[in-house]
Every structure is written in C-alpha cells, then in structure tokens.
Design a protein that fits this description.
Elements lengths: L6 E8 L9 H16 L2 E2 L5 E4 L7 H4 L2 H11 L7 E4 L2 H4 L4 H13 L3 E4 L4 E3 L7 H38 L13 E3 L4 E3 L2 H15 L4 H10 L14 H9 L7 E2 L2 H5 L5 E2 L9 H14 L21 E3 L2 E2 L1 E10 L6 E10 L7 E6 H12 L4 H4 L12 H21 L5 H30 L8 H9 L4 H14 E7 L10 H12 L5 E2 L12 E7 L4 E8 L6 E8 L2
Parallel strand pairs: 1-2, 1-3, 1-4, 4-5, 11-16
Antiparallel strand pairs: 5-6, 7-8, 9-10, 11-12, 13-14, 14-15, 16-18, 17-20, 18-19, 19-20
Helix pairs in contact: 5-6, 7-11, 8-9, 12-16, 14-15, 16-17
Length: about 575
C-alpha cells in the first residue's frame, strides 16, 4: 500500500500587475500552505505556477500562461497522474463561460489531476462517484458567478473608455497611457516630447528614409545604449522600429489600437499629440520600408546570394542556426556594387536575441565540402555488428507530430509581437520540412530495402572549386536533406555535445598517433578563419567528424575527416 503523501502544486493568478502591490499574492499563498498542511498534501515547490497579470476571462492563462504549461507537463508525464492542483477558487482557473470552464475542469480530471478549491473546501476528483453530479452543479454555479462578474467589469470598462474617447474629441487629455516619446507636463497642463526622446524618433524616421533596415537601426541604437523608455523592454528590436515608423502618433494623431479595431471600435483624433515628424518624412520612411520588405516590388530578388545548403540541418548546442546576410560595405571591383557577407548564426531564444555562435558561411561550407568528399558508400553502410535502426519511421513521425504541435503553439504566441517567437516559428517550420523530406526518404528505403541515396560527389567536387554556384548549391541542398539528418557545429571539440566521451577519446588518440585522414585546408587564403568542428549525422545513423584545427607539427591548419564508430 502506498502511504506517501499526494503531490500538490500551487497555482496563483491575478489579472492586473498592480495587484501584486496588494495582498493578493500573500493571501493565495498562505491559504494554499495552510490547506496542504491540514490535508497532509506534499506541496511541490520546484514547479512555480504563477500567472501575474494574466487574465482568465479570455483563457490566456491556458493559452500562454503557467496553467497551460502545467497541463502540458501532465500530458508529457513530467507531473504524475493522481497529483493535485491547489487554487483559491474556481475563478483563478477560469472566468470564461460555464461551458468552457467545465471543459477545462474535465480536461484536468481526465488527466488524473485533482482540483482543490480552498475557499469552499471542495475537492473535484477524477472518480468522484455519486458526488459527480453535485461537483458539476457546483462548478457550473461558480463558473456562472465568475463569468458574470467579469462580463460586468468588461462592460463597465468599455463604457468608461467610450466616455474618455468622447472627452478626448472635445479636447480633454488622456494622461493614463502615453506613447513612450511623450510625457504629461503637469505645470503647463499639456503633453510634451522631451528633447532626447524626440531626437530618437526623428533619427529612426531619417535612417529608415535613407534605406536602413529595421534590424540595422535597432542594432545601431543598442550599440549606443539608447534607452527604450519602456518598463519591460530594455533593448531595441526590429519590430519596435517598424511599429514606430508605421505609427501615426509621431504625426500627432491619436487612433485606435489593433485590439480595439478588431473589436469594432475605431476613432481618429488629429492634432491630439504634439507633431514631431513631418508627413513628408513619414511617407518617405514608410515607402522605403516597403521597398526593404522581401518580395516587395521595389526590391528585386538577390539572385547572387548563395543558397543555404544546410537549411533545417545545422545546429549549435541544440539550437537551430539561421542563415543571415550583412552588408560589408566593400564594392565589387567589377560591378561596383557593395557586397554582403553571409553567416550561419545561432541566437538565444530569449527576448534579447543574444548571439550564441556565428561563423562565416564561406568558411563552414568549404570545410564541410572538403570533409564530405572523403565519404564513400562503405562509410555510410552500417555493419550488422553495429547495425542500428536506419529507418526510424515511427520515431520521425513522433518528432513531426511534436514539431507540428510546437508550431501551432508558437503561431498562437505571435500575437504578442515577439520577434524571437516569430523567428522560432520559422525555424520549427524549416525543421518540419526537413523531417518530412527525411521521413519520405526513409519510408521509400524501408519499402525497397535498398541502400539510401549517396552523396552527390560530382556536385561536391564542383563546390570545392566554386562555392557561389547556386545551381550546384541547390542540388547539394536537396541531396543533403535526403542523406543527412543533422549537422552540429562547434568552435571546439569539447562543445560537441552529441559526441560522447568515449568517442571523443578515441578520436583524440587517433589524432595524436597520426592515424587520421588529413585533408587539404580550403581556407589557406583566409587569415581570419579559425578552428571549427562539424559532427555530421547521416540518415542511416552513421557519424562523421569534420574539423579544422591547428596542425600538431607546425603553425599551419589542417582539415580532418573521420568516421566515428557508434
């Protein structure tokens, strides 16, 4: 008989951030601790479920908050069935309609989670027996009360804001919320723009009109440590720059937000704010921004940009790597057109977008091609003694399903306007396409029981001569997505997390004894090229380690390409 106490998880929530200054947090936490002590529940403090300033009226705490994360952990098995979630009252979980609230409760109960309501001292259990009808009536009654209360608050707020908009039309100033470049001067009883903030707004519009991209402007502002004058955002982002240029606020116009417009409430008040940008400058900046957009009519496609051969394949320490271009400012000696440098970049998923790793694509592509030229059909064939499943169809299908669910969740999160979330969605979609191509290849291989496709050695030889040929790069990319399942990049051998200590040790011993295949360094003429390592994982499970490192006998560089035994 299991006598261990039941695991319990505390869930706290309040709708407005200013409520954390009051007694809401202490009241809910104290009530939960006393309740757990009284019933002998073991409160698991390792998982903090606290939705601060998240409304349950629209279900945001389930869509984006900690409550949704808790449900996901239960579904994944990280939180065991039979555990309990402790809430002060049902309105902490949901203030939606009774039907949606009961659906949420049923979802928790079907997952084997008990719901404890401390304020009414009631426990809703997955198998409540004869009390199930009473529990349902209680849940509906509590949900009706919570929803009616929220509906009343919502209606009153809408009426209050309608009156405020009417007052604004008559000249009354709304001082509660102003754009970041404006403040209310209490001595002069008017809205003003401080000189430092005005200068930043004007600079953004001027740079945009000159053709600077939003990302480049954000980078310049961050390099100069320009404040954002926002309580939550400490760094400038490209989406903030675009939002500023597209806003009518700098032109002196107060208008509805996207949220109120979607609700069918529109208004426009000219001259409400002080004008700090001329209409001509605003029109020029917006026109240039449209030209900068990919696919817009004003900007022809860059046919000279090398195609990303490792789309959806390249990773750094478990993170996806993107393919980016940066203007180098150096004109081509023949055409006179300024060129670009192309990089593989790995950015942090945090909002600050910190650069985790970066490598010039020319360097990495050259080393990869030189190493792959050493691969033969025998290298890719897995022997029976070390044979692993070279057709993990079921595993790939599970991975695809998980990626599609992740993409769906990220798509819902884009409403917040986060650039990193949008980038993350593109990365997940890229991996989905790569996984789909890999799954198609493996399914065909399982059906025909033939060897998987070979590497396009002829294209690799052509690329070793000219890396810029996009026709060859396109063919190589298609072949890579069929044959290669993953490429992990690193600046040192120790950073290759997918390489275990035994494999790393055998490789170093072979390197010391001079038993490894040495390939000519394709980066001899690039003085800035540094050490790099690539662990290539093929679709049949074979591994190949390709690296550029200092030669042991001198100061030169050498490229190594060696199959890693499983």
């Amino acid at each position: 008989m299991n006598t261990s106490p039941k695991l319990a998880y505390s869930y706290l929530r309040f709708s407005r951030l200013h409520q954390q200054l009051g007694d809401s947090t202490r009241r809910q936490a104290t009530s939960t601790e006393a309740y757990c002590q009284r019933l002998g529940l073991k409160l698991d403090r390792s998982l903090e479920l606290f939705d601060k300033g998240v409304s349950a009226f629209k279900g945001r705490n389930v869509e984006k908050g900690d409550l949704g994360k808790f449900i996901a952990l239960v579904e994944q098995g990280a939180v065991p069935r039979g555990s309990a979630i402790i809430v002060e009252s049902l309105d902490r979980l949901s203030r939606q309609s009774p039907r949606k609230t009961v659906a949420l409760l049923n979802r928790l109960l079907d997952l084997g989670i008990e719901v404890h309501l401390t304020s009414v001292n009631r426990v809703l259990r997955p198998n409540s027996g004869p009390d199930e009808g009473i529990d349902l009536i209680l849940a509906v009654a509590l949900a009706m009360r919570a929803n009616e209360e929220s509906e009343t608050k919502s209606m009153r707020l809408q009426e209050a804001w309608a009156r405020k908009r009417e007052d604004a039309q008559k000249g009354t100033l709304l001082r509660a919320s102003l754009p970041w470049w404006l403040v209310y001067d209490a001595t002069r009883l008017k809205i003003v723009s401080p000189p430092d903030r005005r200068a930043v707004v004007q600079k953004v519009f001027e740079l945009t009109a000159k053709g600077y991209s939003s990302a480049r402007i954000a980078r310049l502002l961050n390099e100069k440590n320009t404040p954002t004058w926002r309580p939550k955002t400490k760094k400038w982002l490209a989406c903030r720059v675009r939002g500023l240029v597209n806003s009518d606020g700098p032109l002196g116009t107060l208008k509805e937000t996207a949220k109120t417009k979607a609700a069918g409430r529109t208004h426009r008040i000219e001259g409400y704010y002080p004008r700090i940008i001329d209409p001509e400058l605003a029109a020029a900046a917006r026109a240039q921004m449209r030209k900068n957009m990919r696919g817009a009519r004003g900007r022809p496609g860059d046919l000279s940009r090398p195609i990303n051969m490792l789309r959806g394949l390249l990773h750094f320490q478990g993170h996806w790597c993107r393919y980016a271009s940066h203007r180098n400012g150096l004109p081509d000696p023949e055409t006179g057109i300024k060129g670009h440098n192309h990089y593989y970049e790995c950015l942090s998923e945090d909002t600050d977008g910190k650069m985790l790793w970066c490598c010039n694509s020319t360097y990495l592509d050259a080393v990869l091609v030189a190493g792959l030229l050493e691969v033969t059909a025998a290298d890719l064939a897995t022997s029976k003694e070390t044979e692993i499943d070279i057709s993990p169809v079921h595993g790939l299908r599970s991975d695809l399903e998980a990626l599609r669910i992740r993409a769906k969740n990220l798509l819902a999160a884009i409403e917040s306007g986060s650039v990193t979330v949008a980038n993350r969605l593109r990365e997940v979609e890229t991996e989905i396409r790569a996984k789909e191509a890999q799954l198609e290849t493996l399914e065909a291989y399982s059906a025909s029981n033939t060897a998987p496709p070979e590497l396009p050695l002829r294209d690799l030889e052509a690329l070793s001569v000219n890396l810029q040929n996009n026709v060859t790069r396109q063919r190589a990319m298609t072949a890579f997505n069929r044959v290669i399942s993953r490429v992990e990049a690193a600046s040192s051998l120790k950073e290759l997390s997918r390489l275990n200590e035994q494999q790393r040790g055998r490789f170093l011993v072979a390197l010391t004894q001079g038993k490894l295949r040495i390939v000519g360094d394709p980066l001899r003429r690039f003085a800035r090229a540094k050490e790099m390592w690539l662990l290539v994982e093929f679709s049949n499970g074979a591994l190949r380690l390709i690296g550029r490192a200092r030669a042991s006998h001198g100061s030169g560089w050498q490229v190594l390409s060696e199959r890693i035994e499983l």
